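[step 3/7] fold_predict: job queued, chain A
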Amino acid sequence: MSLFKWSSAHSVYLPEIDAEHRAIYRIGDELHKALLAGAAPARLQPIVANLLETAEQHFRHEERLMRAIHYTSFAWHKGQHDSTRKRWRALAKRIAGGDTDATGELLQFLSEWLRGHIGVADRMMSARLRNYLRFNTSLAS
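[step 4/7] structure written:
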């Protein structure tokens, strides 16, 4: 069973954000498959680094968008990102230290967190952003 299987049910209806989410899911799936195949820690490290950097870039992108539209739930949404950053940094440190269980913990945590976060926080943000763009585009016409 894959922890990271993208489906249209995960869509937030913003193509750029959906593409970023798909990339996170793809790298998470790559890491999960490598872990299940018994890859050595040296093989897992670059995949972990890529996963976390891709997620970090995505978080920063969402945060820029939310600031640009003066999103009223920005602090709440960013707080979710910040607590996740803290958690994955602790797990990444354990992985770098050779803790063989930490990679599985990271995968489980991110898989569960992403489903909940995308399903609620990102959908709320994307609805607000789509309405903002629709309204501001209509004013420009």
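[step 5/7] annotate
The mean pLDDT is 93.
The chain has four helices and no strands.
exit 0
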